[in-house]
Amino acid sequence: MAKKKPAGYVGRFAPSPTGPLHFGSLLAATASYLEATTNSGQWLLRIEDIDAPRASPDAEQYIIEALESYGFEWHGNVRFQSREIDRHLALVDKLLTDGFAYPCSCSRQDLANVPRGPLGRIYPGTCRRGCEGGDVAIRIRTNALPIAFHDVLQGRQEQLLEPESGDFVIRRRDGLIAYHLAVVADDFAQRVTHVVRGIDLLDSTPRQIYLQQLLGYPAPEYAHIPIGTNPSGEKLGKSTGAAAIATEEVRPTLVAALMALGQKPPAELAECRLDAIWSWARENWNMGVLTGQTNLPMPR
Ligand code: GLU
Asked: In the 8-state DSSP scheme, what is residue 20?
């Protein structure tokens, strides 16, 4: 039985509405939900629709309805990240004023030949000392100090932001707020204390922790669960064409999600009522079995 966390647990599920809910997102939803509920916590639903050109209102609706059909119950109203833009922009201004961020006028083309690091292109710092106006992106000035944190499932993590990620964008040239800033701003605004999400975001966490440090925010506790891969070893997601999960006969899919998360439901559980499946899941939930696991091979 997992150790109980202190009172005041606030967890969340924060899908980007770029497609329907697939099995990989169901795993993140299920794990974060069971962690929150078994710790007498709140579980929030936040739709991360800041990337307007990629977000789709149909997908938003579909995700909310799919979660409802699986019996997830979130605390309060669904939060739509796109409605928080003024607050995000104020944080960008604050980071600029404090000297932690700077405008960058480099175009995609200017950066086409810069070397890539493990997390993508490493910005060479061209605009660190000022740039010519026009449409600018805003970047965070990184440094050589390591950012370390303890992940509940994956253990100690450390990253050197300057050489590994480089100065990263918090507001794009087209004016859109970038994911790292939005997620940090909203986790703080919603008083999230525990983040349970897919391991594909483990590498992003040091940049988010750095932003929390610059803004004076406490860091939530992080647990990155292994994510599903298809038989070719690719992450189950929209880009690999993962199918939308069933929303009519949901019970076998929910039981399959519990099994994929290392739980051991009895064979007949899939025939029980949905609330009985959730009761079994709450009584038997043990996220600890996922410790150190990074990959969950999924049946075809
Ligand atoms: N919106 C992100 C995604 O769907 C997840 C953000 C998070 O959980 O921190 O990949």
From this structure: -
> Is 30 a pocket residue for ligand 1 (Cβ < 6 Å)?
no
The residue behind tokens 């040239």 is 173
In Å, what is the CA distance from 284 to each residue of 46, 258, 260, 265, 287? 27, 10, 14, 9, 10
Alpha carbon separation from 121 to 15, 116, 271 (Å, rounded): 25, 4, 50
What is the number of other CB atoms lying within 10 angstroms of the CB of residue 97?
Answer: 9
Residue 48 Cβ inside 6 Å of ligand 1? The answer reads yes
5 CB less than 6 Å from ligand 1? no
pTM above 0.90, yes or no: yes
14 lines ligand 1 (CB under 6 A): yes
**48 alpha carbon – ligand 1 mean position (Å):** 7
At 128-178, the pLDDT tens digits run 998 887 889 999 999 999 999 999 999 999 999 999 999 999 999 999 999
